[in-house]
Design goal:
PH-like_dom_sf, protein phosphatase activator activity, 819 residues, 56% helix, ARM-like, two-stranded antiparallel sheet, EVH1_PP4R3, Serine/threonine-protein phosphatase 4 regulatory subunit 3, alpha+beta, 11 strands, seven-stranded antiparallel beta sheet
Length: 819
């Protein structure tokens, strides 16, 4: 198959006119011998089985919708649909279908006329218009059949719509509806239902304007009450006239605006409640109805926005303390609906809309409303606030920074939002989740502006951490004063989880502000108390918070963690979890694994020196043994900086000598002062077959004496630290291979015993001693071979990079030069 496979879902329409998902797979088109034609094939992505094999029939009407959907009918009652993941895939298959049917791929439906012969099509083209039967009770069935037969053909739909417009036919049909209802003619009412529903599907604005006029709309709704498929008619008109009440919170003087509001509400009701759910084929036929409602809302918002007297009165009553609670509730709900309507506006019109609200003082008004006790009013005010934050967070930030210069922290708008979040009475904290999302938007640096004279990020974050962060973290600090959370009920844990998630967001997106706050307030210690919660989701939030901090690899954070032994609650949680294989177990292991893989030296040493006894028995993962290995390698480099340096030199092929220099080097080796071997690594050249072991032992014994002397001098320098740590001088064991062919590439091993944890050079013990300077000493002077214990990785890389640039002289030659 040459066609690219595309990911799709296969749907079939069931008897209830609902779409059933038949599975997900990859679609292709290919010639199928059994079907004798090009076919659509869908193979399941799970097991490769065939989900669909459908021949592309030249006469089948295929329809493309919403750029990613292709629908068609295989048989009279068997509709199929392919929903594509990508538009490109849909376009490719659509082109293949159009190619088989000989159609232009730019069309959205491949067959315009269904069940019509060429002769009928020619008659339609040549006839001047469609003649409607007389609008009489006895001819209703004939009218219904005419409407139904015209719907599949765009040309016939056009002619039917023109005939309905020109003859004022809709008003005549509605007069018949009143007659049928008076006579209780159920058959006629059912025909009228089909006719009116068909007129909706004609998708003509001119017809909608007639149907939705003040004198016609209630009769249109009445026709749609008598669905033939229902045993009893609906009571939509009763609901609209008795149950639904229009409330004017502020009197509307403009009659055109009043009429437009009534019309929009009723048409929206028809779309949402009265008309049956359209099938996939009918969905595009109601696009004009959607547009009608959309433009009505735009007009309403524009007319209200232009009425300055109306908006002034609205905000005055909202903030007036004398306004009673019921009235204020209605005012806030109106403002909420007003903002919801604004979502239909174009971007430039929406800019003007929110600018008008801002000038009218919507934010100070919201501040007053949020300070009230009525929960419903506060909920509506929160929804309005969310519209403002989502549209223009900078406007909200600017307002709160300005008011902070005049008001106390307690009544700041952001602090009111935080308090409502903390005091949410909903057991599921639905309101708190919404408010937390708004706070996250406000503190997100990604949507903050930066100009030449003003940096919003710096100003706002400084304001937030000074005036608001203590309010946000108050529940966390109050609940974590001991080793376990003082309150561990579900609702409290939900709230604390939200707070910790926001703090985690701050760690990721803010720099020194959150770092100073965490370290000064000891926030991480408090958060880690939550690992002892009985609710796993809260313990995981706390672990995510610490993991985010460790992931920054910031030594300020690392020193704070080590100084306060903040891995202790994590290790406790890990050990308390036991052998259970769950999220907590995996999250903690992943944290330690990150420290090992990233080779965070300070944390590695801290973990092994303080918690190794509790972790050494964990053998179902190699994480902790790997950490121990990292630690030992690190200590070895710190104890013997020149050892690592010498090994890297020996590993590097730069120092491979040719045979001519071996004798000179051998002579130099044994004549060199014993200080050259200070790092305790014995290197035996290949020519050692010419020397006996007795010849070798004399300089080695001298070396060991000098080594002991040097160790005693170091002890005198580090008396205080050495006495505290009780660290012993490393002992060296030199062994020589019995094979005469020991080479430079495989030097004899030097085993050493690192000091006990807490030794002066160990990380995590507070003050650190400065790294020793290593040098190769000869009889004649000092060769500057300097090495630092923590730079071993860079040293390896530097030596490898330098390899291609220049060749350094062999170590023995350097010794000769200096001697």
């Amino acid at each position: 198959m040459t066609d690219t496979r595309r990911r799709v879902k296969v749907y079939t329409l069931n008897e209830d006119r609902q779409w059933d998902d038949r599975g997900t797979g990859h679609v292709s088109s290919a010639y199928v011998e059994r079907l004798k034609g090009m076919s659509l094939l869908v193979r399941a992505e799970s097991d490769g089985s065939l989900l669909l094999e459908s021949k592309i029939n030249p006469n089948t009407a295929y329809q493309k919708q919403q750029d990613t959907l292709i629908v068609w009918s295989e048989a009279e009652n068997y509709d199929l649909a392919l929903s594509f993941q990508e538009k490109a895939g849909c376009d490719e298959i659509w082109e293949k279908i159009c190619q088989v049917q000989g159609k232009d791929p730019s069309v959205d439906i491949t067959q315009e006329l269904i069940d019509e012969s060429e002769e009928e099509r020619f008659d339609d083209m040549s006839s001047p218009g469609l003649e409607l039967p007389p609008c009489e009770l006895s001819r209703l069935e004939e009218v219904a059949e005419l409407v139904a037969s015209s719907l599949p053909s765009p040309l016939r739909r056009e002619k039917l719509a023109l005939a309905l417009e020109n003859e004022g036919y809709i008003r005549k049909l509605l007069e018949l509806f009143r007659v049928c209802e008076d006579l209780e003619n159920r058959e006629g009412l059912h025909h009228l239902y089909d006719i009116i529903k068909g007129i909706f599907l004609l998708n003509r604005t001119a017809l909608f304007e007639v149907m939705f006029s003040e004198e016609c709309i209630m009769d249109v709704i009445g026709c749609l009450e008598f669905d033939p498929s229902l045993p009893q008619p609906r009571r939509h008109r009763e609901f609209l006239t008795t149950t639904a009440r229009f409330k004017e919170v502020i009197p509307i003087s403009d009659p055109e605006l009043r009429q437009k509001i009534h019309q929009t509400y009723r048409v929206q009701y028809i779309q949402d409640m009265v008309l049956p759910t359209p099938s996939v084929f009918e969905e595009n036929m109601l696009s004009t109805l959607h547009s009608f409602i959309f433009f009505n809302k735009v007009e309403i918002v524009g007319m209200l926005q232009d009425d300055e007297k109306f908006l002034t009165e609205l905000f005055a009553q909202l903030t007036d303390e004398a306004t009673d609670d019921d009235k204020r509730h209605e005012l806030v709900n109106f403002l909420k609906e007003f903002c919801a309507f604004s979502q239909t506006l174009q971007p430039q019109n929406r800019d003007a809309f929110f600018k008008t609200l801002s000038n009218m003082g919507i934010l100070p008004a919201l501040e007053v409303i949020l300070g009230m006790d009525d929960v419903q009013v506060r909920g509506a005010a929160t929804d309005i606030f969310s519209y403002l934050v989502e549209y223009n967070p900078s406007m909200v930030r600017e307002f709160v920074m300005q008011e902070s210069q005049q008001n106390d922290d307690d009544i700041l708008l952001i602090n009111l939002i935080i308090e409502h979040m903390i005091c949410d009475t909903d057991p599921e904290l639905g309101g708190a989740v919404q408010l937390m999302g708004l706070l996250r938007t406000l503190v997100d640096p990604e949507n903050m502006l930066a100009t030449a004279n003003k940096t919003e990020k710096t100003e706002f974050l400084s304001f937030f951490y000074k005036h608001c962060m203590h309010v946000l973290s108050a529940p966390l600090l109050a609940n974590t004063t001991e080793e376990k959370p003082s309150k561990d009920d579900f609702q409290t844990c939900q709230l604390l989880a939200l707070i910790v998630e926001l703090l985690t967001f701050c760690v990721e997106h803010h720099t020194y502000h959150i770092k100073n706050y965490i370290i000064n307030k000891d926030i991480l210690r408090r958060v880690l108390v939550l690992t002892a919660s009985q609710h796993a989701f809260l313990a995981l939030c706390a672990l995510r918070f610490m993991r985010k901090i460790i992931g920054l690899k910031d030594e300020f954070y690392n020193r704070y963690i080590m100084r306060n032994f903040l891995f202790e609650p994590v290790v406790k949680a890990f050990l308390n979890n036991g052998s259970r294989y769950n999220l907590i177990n995996s999250a903690i292991i992943e944290m330690f694994e990150y420290v090992r893989v990233e080779d965070v030296k300070s944390l590695t040493a801290h973990i092994i020196e303080n918690y190794w006894k509790g972790l050494e028995d964990v053998d179902y993962v190699q994480t902790f043994k790997g950490l121990k290995l990292r630690y030992e390698q690190q200590r070895e480099r710190q104890d013997n900086p020149k050892l690592d340096s010498m090994r890297s030199i020996l590993r590097n092929h730069r120092f491979r000598r040719d045979a001519r220099t071996l004798e000179d080097e051998e002579e130099m080796w044994f004549n060199t002062d014993e200080e050259d071997l200070e790092d305790g690594e014995a290197v035996v050249p290949p020519s050692d077959k010419m020397k006996s072991d007795e010849d070798l032992m004399d300089p080695i014994s001298k070396f060991m004496e000098r080594k002991k002397l040097k160790d005693s001098e170091e002890k005198e320098v580090l008396t205080g630290k050495a006495s505290l740590s009780g660290r012993q001088s490393p002992s060296f064991k030199l062994s020589f291979s019995s094979s005469p062919k020991a080479s430079l590439s495989s030097p004899p091993t030097a085993s050493l015993h690192p000091g006990s944890p807490g030794s002066p050079s160990s990380p995590g013990t507070g003050a650190r001693s400065s790294p020793p300077t290593a040098a190769v000493t000869t009889k004649g002077g000092l060769v500057g071979l300097v090495d630092y214990p923590d730079d071993d990785d860079e040293e390896d890389e530097d030596e490898e990079d330098a390899d291609s640039k220049e060749e350094s002289p062999p170590l023995s030659k350097k010794s000769k030069l200096s001697s």
